[in-house]
Write a structure and sequence with these properties.
2 copies of one chain form a homodimer. By secondary structure, chain A is an alpha/beta fold. Chain A has helices at residues 21-34, 47-54, 58-70, 90-96, 113-117, 144-156, 160-164, 172-185, 201-212, 227-235, 277-290, 313-316, 348-358, 364-375, 378-401, 426-435, 465-480; strands spanning 74-77, 81-84, 195-198, 218-223, 239-246, 249-250, 258-263, 293-297, 322-327, 339-342, 406-407, 415-419, 441-442, 455-459. Chain A is built from 17 helices and 14 strands. In chain A, the strands form 3 sheets. In chain A, strands 3-10-9-8-7-4-5-6 form an 8-stranded mixed sheet, sandwiched between helices.
Chain lengths: 481, 481
């Protein structure tokens, strides 16, 4: 084993009182790695030792380590030792040049209440997908050649109209294509005028939050649930009420004073169940009587492997109280940044007003290329092809997990939950898995309440059968210890 | 002259109390046009008559007419008669199908204070550029073939990294290219880590407003000035203090309690003067002592025709108090939706946090294509080529206006101001010009205070010399009346 680096060997620079402690430590370690003072393969000091030596909380140290980890500077994990990465890709060395100049003076700028409520941006995770990355399609199978052909064809007949711009809610032909698709495939009742083209689900949530919530308003949220939504709601100053789940999905909240309820009925994030029709109708009735709106996040139900599709909440609603959101970032590729929101007719002008004042409209050429990709039939073919591949990957996951983990039998989507055998704790399981090059996320990270059982979130779409099997073999080793 | 349509011929439908009056009238007239009840060439009722007959304010009628006008349904102008357009392009008939379903019930959704402060979205103006359209480059001269080649080349070598995503502030190589360009050409002192890639100037303003302003905070603003900025500031609940201009540019505000000051020093919007160095230093001193930040909107100074470039406020600032913003939407094409903000080092993490929580990052392929376009030298060549063309167009404008209008001798940008001869009023001048197919915007629309003289805003970049001369001949006819 490599000698553990002593914190004093690192010559940590003096700490600037204006820089958050985790950031100072991150910068210091990163500089040490990039300047070669910490060599590839060197073991970093333990978090406890470092906390004591640098007089910082252990949470601060863990935050700094996690950021270095996410950016690829270090490997291993907090539990089992952290090492400087053996291979520092060129990207990192390049990225080093893209850091802002050091702040020359103290923090003198007063920021808004909104700014103070924002959590720090997580480091962008540029690592190649591994087992069991969640929220990611199979990028290696994306038909880039076909996409390039569609884009090139559209660009060659670029009209002045396409250079000029479009309506705030988006390119009308794309909105028509989306409305047609949602009507035919997802049981959504809408026309093109109700479609707002946005950047992603977080963007849809942010728009909805700005337009519907004031500080102190209450939002109901599934628990466990999508913490990205919680971050948006809390950033605008809303109070989040976490409603528990049962086997039918989110329970109807007891509170009656909520302005908005966030729910993932098609494929609950992260547990994976499909909400029953009975529960859907109860939720709609609750919304009708309490005056709340529902945000239906249909983030990955393009892929259904078994079971009968249940009509969307939006399609069941006759009172115009459901905002339905979906995304192309998870079925095509994440860097596309095109998603949509189906807005109740009564609110369409408000959404147009917000988009017009802030960003005019989403980039138009991307919208036009995506529109061609859909209307020329490529999108439907891509979905059919990937559905088969993902169904196979899901069955490989289920099969290889047999006897090891109790994997939830999901009907749809790109990921599922797995329960650990008694005696295992998800955080240390995840740390040990990470040390073996396997990514699993403890379900507790998506939860506010203590969960009845320890479990992890597993993606099965991003990597192939071979990598799924490798991942499961590594998990078996962790479980065998 | 066509017979004036009587309001009662139109069978205006009963008014729904939940729909704003201008919207009801717009819908009714539009339906009448699309259904053929108002035939091409038919004259609409006068605004005064219609106001009396429908029991609405004249402002309401004008709003509805302006929206129909902007969308191409009607021609002419409020002053000189409004006619149904002779040619209704297919686009309009198609757009008619993209309107949301009628609201079936009353407005039952309570919206946020932010939503109530937003002005309604203006209709998207899809008309072909005419003399003297402002804020628009020469789209017919944009090198679309070259852009297509650059895009196709980048798409053909699409890597998994480009499909995956990037940092919240944007694609690092593009941010490096922007920082290099700004350092070399605009006198901005920054490194790539300070660049945030956003959708446009309004988006930059919105981000800055959310992160720096709370409701009730004061913002100083040039008057006359860019009303798009005022709309953003007012939407977040800020109080706008309008500071007057003199020949040196914006005067230093008397107030000491502002959090932010918005200014266009390179080419004042809309009057066109370049702020003197002395005034720049005074503004920076004011910012330093009052604790305000400066938002420097450098929206179109890529094109400088004469005079010596003055260093940017950002470059003169040593205290990290300037947010510098610029855009590619005006030098390349408006539907691109890529602009940038240079953030003081102290605030970089706040901007990254806001982008991460709301939209992850700007669409990545667009950023990569633009990056190639810049780093392969095409951007610089495009600027040099267009600078020469726009300089010619400006001189055609100056020459053809001689003896007619007093045109400000601008040193930079895509537009200028022109002062009317005594006795002319800008609104009726603009109406009469519009009736002759010429677009001029009264400067009073960009102003809160009464202006000392009546003037209009003229763009000279979007159309060629022939169209500029045609436009000026038409203005001469209006002035000769």
């Amino acid at each position: 084993m490599a000698r553990q680096t002593d914190a004093f060997d690192l010559m940590l620079p003096p700490r600037d009182a204006d820089v958050p402690a985790y950031r100072w430590l991150y910068d210091a370690l990163r500089a040490a790695i990039l300047e070669g003072r910490l060599r590839p393969g060197a073991r970093l000091p333990g978090t406890r030792d470092l906390a004591r030596q640098a007089d910082l909380s252990r949470g601060t140290i863990v935050s700094a380590f996690e950021q270095l980890h996410a950016e690829g500077y270090v490997e291993g994990s907090v539990g089992s030792g952290t090492y400087v990465s053996k291979v520092l890709p060129d990207d990192l060395l390049k990225a080093a040049r893209v850091k802002p100049r050091t702040v020359e003076r103290g923090g003198t700028v007063r920021v808004s209440a909104y700014a103070t409520r924002l959590p720090p941006a997580p480091a962008f995770d540029a690592r190649k997908p591994r087992a069991f990355r969640t929220d990611l399609p199979a990028l290696d199978l994306f038909p880039t050649t076909l996409w390039t052909q569609v884009a090139a064809k559209r660009l060659r007949r670029l009209s002045m109209n396409l250079l000029l711009g479009t309506e705030p809610l988006g390119y009308p032909p794309l909105r028509t294509a989306i409305a047609d698709y949602l009507t035919a495939s997802r049981g959504v009742k809408c026309d093109a005028g109700q479609i707002a083209v946005v950047s992603g689900t977080p963007d849809a949530l942010d728009l909805v939050s700005r337009l519907l919530l004031d500080r102190g308003d209450r939002v109901c949220m599934e628990d466990p649930g999508y913490q990205g939504a919680v971050r948006v709601f809390e950033s605008v100053g809303a109070k989040v009420h976490a409603a528990p789940l049962d086997e039918q999905g989110m329970k109807v909240p007891r509170v009656r004073d909520a302005r908005l309820l966030y729910v993932t009925p098609a494929h609950q994030f992260p547990l994976g169940m499909t909400m029953t029709l009975a529960r859907r109708l109860e939720l709609l009735e609750w919304a009708r009587t309490s005056g709340a709106l529902l945000f239906e996040d249909d983030y990955d139900s393009e892929y259904r492997y078994s079971g009968r599709p249940v009509p969307s909440l939006q399609g069941l609603d006759s009172a115009g109280r459901v905002l339905f959101s979906g995304t192309f970032n998870k079925v095509l590729f994440p860097s596309l940044r095109i998603a949509y929101l189906v807005v109740p007719p009564e609110l369409v002008d408000r959404f147009a007003a917000a988009l017009a004042v802030t960003r005019r409209h989403a980039p138009l050429l991307d919208q036009a290329v995506l529109c061609d990709f859909i209307t020329e039939g490529h999108f439907g073919r891509h979905l059919r092809r990937m559905r088969q591949i993902y169904a196979e990957r899901l069955s490989v996951l289920m099969e290889s997990a047999r006897g090891l983990l109790e994997v939830s039998d999901v009907e749809a989507g790109l990921q599922t939950a797995a329960w650990l055998p008694a005696g295992f704790e998800a955080e240390s399981f995840a740390s040990a898995a990470a040390a073996r090059g396997v990514e699993v996320t403890p379900l507790s990270r998506h939860s506010r309440r203590a969960l009845p059982r320890e479990g992890v979130h597993l993606g099965f779409a991003a990597v192939d059968a071979r990598e799924i099997r490798r991942g499961m073999r590594e998990l078996a080793m962790v479980l065998a210890r």
